[in-house]
Design goal:
This is Amidohydrolase. Residues 179-275 form the Peptidase M20 dimerisation domain. Its cofactor is Mn(2+). It comes from Spirosoma linguale (strain ATCC 33905 / DSM 74 / LMG 10896 / Claus 1). This protein has 384 residues and is an alpha/beta fold. It folds into two domains: 7-174 and 293-383, Zn peptidases (Aminopeptidase); 177-291, Alpha-Beta Plaits. It contains nine helices and 16 strands. The strands form four sheets. Strands 1-2-4-3-5-16-6-15 form an eight-stranded mixed β-sheet, with helices on both faces. Strands 10-12-8-13 form a four-stranded antiparallel β-sheet, with helices on one face. Strands 7-14 form a two-stranded antiparallel sheet. α3 (98-114) crosses α9. The chain is elongated and about 75 Å long.
């Protein structure tokens, strides 16, 4: 804890951590956020995306419109930490730091209350369902959001393994395109003593998995980066007299951008078509949890860099996109903006690890950086 960080924001973060809710179920989380941020006198508070919240500051229709987004959902992970604010919900915990991101946005609301927006408007989005890739789309499709057209949209993510409060960004792809592929293989059940009278998908599934390895380019520095990760498979029943007739393979695909993802999925579909034709096994595919790459606007990145350096924060430009996905990418597909990272500490456990926790020392500096970005955008707009 730093002397500059008000205790109420750390306490708020700890409260969120104690009562986590997974994607799409953030009902109590929204109530806690709404009750807390109401004291900072937003111009308007609107419930959006079923379990999200939208705050407006300022009413000037002629000035710049800036959007700042934080995610609010937790993960289905059992926490092993034993500190005082540990999760009270069995099997659910904030292992990605969204409780911290929410506290940062709440602190920003307090700063905007102290320094009212006189030019343009600022929108703070407390977005649900980031972890399953559905939240950004739900916000953007909400009728309450229809008339909001941000000139700039910004978001952050904490970064374990980086020094505390270092700012990390880059123009172009900041995070990867991520898509989960579900492949079903349908053959014909038979007696296990007479497999020739059925169509067992086992060898086709095995062949498919082995051949996907040759489609990978796992070097994240490469423009052709493509990572294929098997995450789940199932086949048949635990009945040893039956030769299986159905199986599934679930994969997570990661590429540097949407175009590369289109190429990769086309290669996988072609491979599956060949295997189906050779074996007689029927193949069907489905997609889930799609995350667009965060495509950072070059000018927005420069604003982040200028703001960080002005505040005295160290700044690093990443050489390659991060391999994980983040659904703020859908915002950067529609609006000029950028996502950046802030170091959670070099000794911090990794994201989605059961012993991870958000670093409370980031609340104040991250909120100050967002405020500086808002003021810089207002300055740019007034000059133009």
């Amino acid at each position: 804890m730093t002397s500059e960080t008000p205790d109420i924001f750390i306490q708020f973060r700890h409260e969120l951590h104690q009562f986590p809710e997974v994607s799409g179920q953030e009902v109590e989380t929204r109530k806690r956020i709404k009750n807390f941020v109401s004291q900072f006198n937003p111009t308007r508070i609107t419930e959006v995306a079923q379990t999200g919240l939208l705050l407006q500051y300022g009413q000037d229709s002629a000035g710049p419109v800036t959007l700042i987004r934080a995610d609010i959902d937790a993960l289905p992970i059992q926490e092993v930490n034993t500190f005082g604010h540990k999760s009270r919900t069995n099997g659910v915990s904030h292992k990605c730091g969204h409780d911290g991101h929410t506290a940062i946005l709440a602190k920003l609301a307090a700063l905007l209350a102290e320094k009212p927006v006189t030019r343009g408007r600022v929108y703070l989005v407390f977005q649900p369902a980031e972890e399953n890739g559905k939240g950004a789309e739900a916000v953007l499709n909400d009728p309450a959001f229809a008339d909001i057209r941000p000139d700039r949209a910004f978001a952050l993510h904490n970064l374990p393994g980086y020094k505390q409060s270092v700012i990390v960004c880059r123009p172009g792809s900041f995070t990867s395109s991520v898509l989960s592929l579900i492949v079903s293989f349908t053959g014909k059940v038979s007696h296990s003593a007479e497999p020739e009278k059925g169509l067992n998908p086992a060898y086709v599934m095995a062949d498919f998995l082995l051949r996907t390895k040759h489609l990978q380019h796992p070097d994240p520095q490469s423009e052709d980066f493509a990572l294929i990760t098997p995450v789940y498979t199932t086949m048949g029943e635990k009945s040893y007299g039956i030769s299986a007739g159905y199986g599934e393979v679930h994969l997570t695909l990661r590429t540097r951008n949407a175009k590369r993802m289109e190429t990769l999925t086309a290669q996988l579909l072609a491979l599956l078509a060949d295997l189906s034709a050779e074996s007689g096994i029927a193949v069907e595919t489905a997609y889930t949890e799609a995350f667009y790459a965060n495509e950072n606007d070059r000018e927005a990145v420069e604003q982040i860099k200028q703001s960080a350096l002005k505040l005295g924060y160290p700044y690093i430009e990443n050489a390659a996109p991060f391999k994980w996905g983040e659904d703020f990418g859908l915002f950067t597909q529609k609006y000029r903006g950028a996502m950046f990272g802030i170091g959670n500490g070099q000794d911090s456990p990794a994201l989605h690890n059961d012993d991870y926790d958000f670093n409370d020392n980031l609340i104040e500096p991250a909120a100050r950086l967002f405020l500086e970005l808002i003021e810089l955008e207002q300055h740019y707009q007034s000059e133009s």
